[in-house]
Amino acid sequence: MPKVLISDKMDPLAAQIFRNRGVEVDEITGKTPEELMAIIGKYDGLAIRSSTKVTKEILEAATNLKVVGRAGIGVDNVDIPAASAKGVVVMNTPFGNSITTAEHAIALMFALARQLPEADASTQAGKWEKNRFMGVELTAKTLGLIGAGNIGSIVADRALGLRMKVVAYDPFLTPERALEMGVEKVELDQLLARADFITLHTPLTDQTRNILSAENLAKTKKGVRIINCARGGLIDEAALKKGLESGHVAGAALDVFAVEPAKEHPLFGTPNFISTPHLGASTTEAQVNVAIQIAEQMADYLTTGGITNALNVPSLSAEEAPRLKPYMALAEKLGSLVGQLAHGGIARVSIHSEGAAAELNQKPIVSAVLAGFLRVHSDTVNMVNAPFLAKERGMEVREIRTEREGDYHSLIRVSVKTGAGERSVAGTLFGDAAPRLVELFGVKVEADLAGDMLYIVNEDAPGFIGRLGTALGEAGVNIGTFHLGRQSAGGEAVLLLSVDDPVGPDLVAAVRALPGVKTVMALKF
Ligand SMILES: NC(=O)C1=CN([C@@H]2O[C@H](COP(=O)(O)OP(=O)(O)OC[C@H]3O[C@@H](n4cnc5c(N)ncnc54)[C@H](O)[C@@H]3O)[C@@H](O)[C@H]2O)C=CC1
Ligand SMILES: O=C(O)C(=O)COP(=O)(O)O
């Protein structure tokens, strides 16, 4: 039974769903990295929010881990390249908390406009400072949206409802989408110069880090108010403090900080500064949504292989997974076959799907070929890390599909280009489920690829099969199945034998010494 660790506070529905889906679950929150490292080896899945940092070191210790599930959106607390290299799927819930976070940004905008936290503190302190708190109206003000994705567009929609004018900076926002959203697409400098309020809704990436730098803050309109419910690293916090102190920035509300938890911070106590402790996603509704979604997604992956909302592998729905499974098994076997037979550096792998196979999602088929191919050299390769490893090794991967059927209802052909030229193997599914090799380096054969096998190329001459049987018999190796293919009578023949025991180097040498033998290799599937 797969086992999952929930390491951050999550709605109890997550644990309930895991159990209902036959997944064992432990909820252990608040662990230090060292404590987490000590226990993570037991788990197949790790369910987190933003507190757990899934570092390279944690992943190294996670010897059984197959999936990290983020109950929320931002995955900057997960080392995705390290997870991919280890073959661990990373998934999130991209929509479950977006409305809630957008509402928090709007709440902070109102709080800034009317200085609500200070007014509340002053009133409850018995001061009744009616003249101290003079606010600004939102109607007709310009809201500058940095990042117009899921959350940014909900914020825009709400702001338009408040009769604000919305300008948006997002390099990936198309003019059509801007029109549909009712916002004006602008460059960053225009936004900085025009906005009365600025709200950030981008992920933290190398391009967005410090997007509100000291230099950019200096380009903002005097009296600007800034809201950040996205990620801490987007703003230069020291420059923001200076801006607030000088009065250039009339107010700033941060839900997120460069270092969290922010229990002490130079901004604390600065006039017109408001903060919340990363509460953007903290509503009952959002937490129920993300808990249900992540538990369902992780349980799907661990029990059926279905992949939804993964950030480092193509999606594979729970409905698709059973249909694709036999094709992926075939693809992996073909990849493994060429991996074992091909010599020298591989410059290119081409995967050609024909007939029924061409109608399927190709990405998992391609990943399975690469996994089979690369696993010949390393046990830690799987469907998740294979495409990354192939890229790392400079292999070109080509994907071709032909929906028309050829000789078979469906066919997958894997060709590799090495220094010695291009060679290919092809296979099909018998009865839609049993993987079968049908072509090996241009020779028609028909073989299962399973267990220990022996691959032999020899000159097609009488008496050879008898001598081979004797050599195997003398070594105590029993033949299971025997598949022969040849280009023409008396030409070169290809033999694929399945054997009941592993074939050692002595037996390989003995077979190689038989007259007419050109190539002998022991294979394993
Ligand atoms: N405070 C909190 O509790 C929460 C924070 N978040 C954070 O909110 C942020 C936005 O989330 P979503 O809207 O769901 O993401 P999204 O992926 O839907 O949208 C992000 C947008 O940023 C844009 N973008 C990327 N690079 C950019 C750049 N250099 N300049 C301007 N725009 C750029 C993208 O094109 C995209 O449209 C994320 O950082 C997420 O982690 C999300 C949920 C809760
Ligand atoms: O979903 C996100 O990106 C968030 O930042 C929410 O974080 P949390 O799950 O509340 O720790």
Task: Characterise this structure.
The protein contains 17 helices and 22 strands. The mean pLDDT is 94. The protein has 525 residues and is an alpha/beta fold. It is elongated and about 110 Å long. The longest helix has 22 residues. 42% of the residues are buried. The chain has a seven-stranded parallel sheet, sandwiched between helices. A six-stranded mixed sheet has the order 14-13-15-16-17-18. The chain has a five-stranded parallel sheet with strand order 2-1-3-4-5. α7 links the parallel β6 and β7. The two termini are 25 Å apart. 34% of the residues lie in helices and 25% in strands. The chain binds 1,4-dihydronicotinamide adenine dinucleotide (NAI) and 2-oxo-3-(phosphonooxy)propanoic acid (HPV). The site of 1,4-dihydronicotinamide adenine dinucleotide has 32 residues, from α5 and α7.
* Number of separate structural domains: 4
Sheet bearing the most strands, described? 7 strands, parallel
Supply the CATH architecture of the largest domain: 3-Layer(aba) Sandwich
The level 1 CATH classification of the largest domain is: Alpha Beta
Helical residue percent band: 25-40%
- Report, as a whole number of angstroms, the end-to-end distance: 25 Å
Mean pLDDT: 94
* Broad structural category: alpha/beta
Oligomer: single chain
Number of strands: 22
Domain D-3-phosphoglycerate dehydrogenase ASB: 323-440
Domain D-isomer specific 2-hydroxyacid dehydrogenase catalytic: 4-312
GO molecular function, one term: phosphoglycerate dehydrogenase activity
InterPro entries: ACT-like_dom_sf (IPR045865), ACT_dom (IPR002912), ASB_dom_sf (IPR029009), D-isomer_2_OHA_DH_cat_dom (IPR006139), D-isomer_DH_CS (IPR029753), D-isomer_DH_NAD-bd (IPR006140), NAD(P)-bd_dom_sf (IPR036291), PGDH (IPR006236)
